[in-house]
Amino acid sequence: xxxxxxxxxxxxxxxxxxxxxxxxxxxxxxxxxxxxxxxxxxxxxxxxxxxxxxxxxxxxxxxxxxxxxxxxxxxxxxxxxxxxxxxxxxxxxxxxxxxxxxxxxxxxxxxxxxxxxxxxxxxxxxxxxxxxxxxxxxxxxxxxxxxxxxxxxxxxxxxxxxxxxxxxxxxxxxxxxxxxxxxxxxxxxxxxxxxxxxxxxxxxxxxxxxxxxxxxxxxxxxxxxxxxxxxxxxxxxxxxxxxxxxxxxxxxxxxxxxxxxxxxxxxxxxxxxxxxxxxxxxxxxxxxxxxxxxxxxxxxxxxxxxxxxxxxxxxxxxxxxxxxxxxxxxxxxxxxxxxxxxxxxxxxxxxxxxxxxxxxxxxxxxxxxxxxxxxxxxxxxxxxxxxxxxxxxxxxxxxxxxxxxxxxxxxxxxxxxxxxxxxxxxxxxxxxxxxxxxxxxxxxxxxxxxxxxxxxxxxxxxxxxxxxxxxxxxxxxxxxxxxxxxxxxxxxxxxxxxxxxxxxxxxxxxxxxxxxxxxxxxxxxxxxxxxxxxxxxxxxxxxxxxxxxxxxxxxxxxxxxxxxxxxxxxx
Length: 571
Ligand code: NOJ
Prior knowledge:
The protein has helices at about 35-40, 45-50, 85-95, 115-120, 190-205, 240, 245-260, 275-285, 315-330, 350, 360-370, 400-410, 415-425, 430-435, 465-470, 475-485, 490-495, 535-540, and strands at about 15-20, 55, 100-105, 135, 160-165, 170-175, 210, 265-270, 295, 335-340, 375-380, 495-500, 505-515, 515-525, 545, 560-570. The chain is an alpha/beta fold. The strands form three sheets. Strands 9-8-7-3-2-1-11-10 form an eight-stranded parallel sheet. A five-stranded antiparallel sheet has the order 12-13-14-16-15. It is globular, with a radius of gyration of 24 Å. The site of 1-deoxynojirimycin (NOJ) has 9 residues, from loops. 1-deoxynojirimycin (NOJ) binds near residues 106, 212, 213, 343 and 344.
């Protein structure tokens, strides 16, 4: 394209983000809960892995009803995790290693113990009343009785999305737990206050924000009933709060007020359940100045039917179709976030791979497939070790409010406890939250005290110390993948073509930049397979950039084998 200057790709297009769930990462003071000093003490490990950005799940003061996603002070640090000085030190130490730090921004809701909410609930004419969603009971009903809620919406954590406040005779909205009241973003003071708080963090040296359920901040007015699907207890409020009418305006305003002028150094990523490709393209179109990238949920919903506890088998063709559509949809403008794991998802190896015989190989395969897509990869703590789901025996082993509430409600409604437990074991968020496995010692080197949730007993084998020492480990495979993104421009910037979309076990695609073409081919099964690629024979003669089966180069892929080939093609 003669005469046209392409804009420099943003720095995060060649970056890899590592997510730390502070509660479960490293405990420095023996109280059984991870903390900031613990994280700082492990920065060399992260540096060795080669990541560019550290995303910290919430460390703010919080009653910990939802493990910190219920914030009672946006400008402090919970004593559980340390002090602001500890955080400053963590940021300084991360920066010294070339690692940026991104904070979790949870502003769809606060804790009910946040002073704003305490004031808001204190009287109907308090100036902060309108900072939250207060509504009278449904007309013609008795306030406080079941069924009197202002709308029929269910909360994500079971039960209705409205809580009755006896003192004022009104209800407040909480899409999550009753201790997480939703902020009213229609109120300009709320927005201004959040912007000010964000600027305060930037001034303190943070490098961006991961924005919690940010596509829920704009609600469609008037608030009204959603459709009740057959067999459901509550109506679906989603259509009224997912990507609501003012969402683009609110994000553009936030960008203008907080991010503008700092784009070249910051990262913003919006967590957006239910977002479509078309909406994501708008949110991430650089010309619209909203967010850099979004987390979408399509590929982590394919093994679920009616809600997350309704387990369905995963079809590889559906996974390829979904991820391929996202690659295509954001090819010309916008940008993808790439993830298998985070603190809300079960462990990827147990979910998409084989957590038995082929644990190591399938963990490497999953990393390879994900990191070779176009977008910014996110690694969740322990993923680089191939950590797997936990062997929870009974409901008492779970800690997560979502799982505990679901169990109680489902059993109350007549479900079989064993079946509910089975769903929790497969899909529950606590799978991701068992402590990071540092070594083979008691409690995996996570704490010298009693861990807040049990350590996976497999830590005697699956742990960071062993992985770092073994050049053939999942850890070193991830290290190579991260390095590849930095050293082979086609990984970050090449275009993407999905191959063999209908093949039930082979995941194959190419990436192309100028005269370089990369082929990623992976066998998502425990049986050997010969990929049905028309030019497979030609690829076999090309450079093998990365693989997960030593010495393998023949036409058959072994169980859970993945390869990345490189060749030069005519421009
Ligand atoms: C999404 C977060 O990732 C999850 O952990 C949390 O429970 C909800 N948002 C509510 O903040």
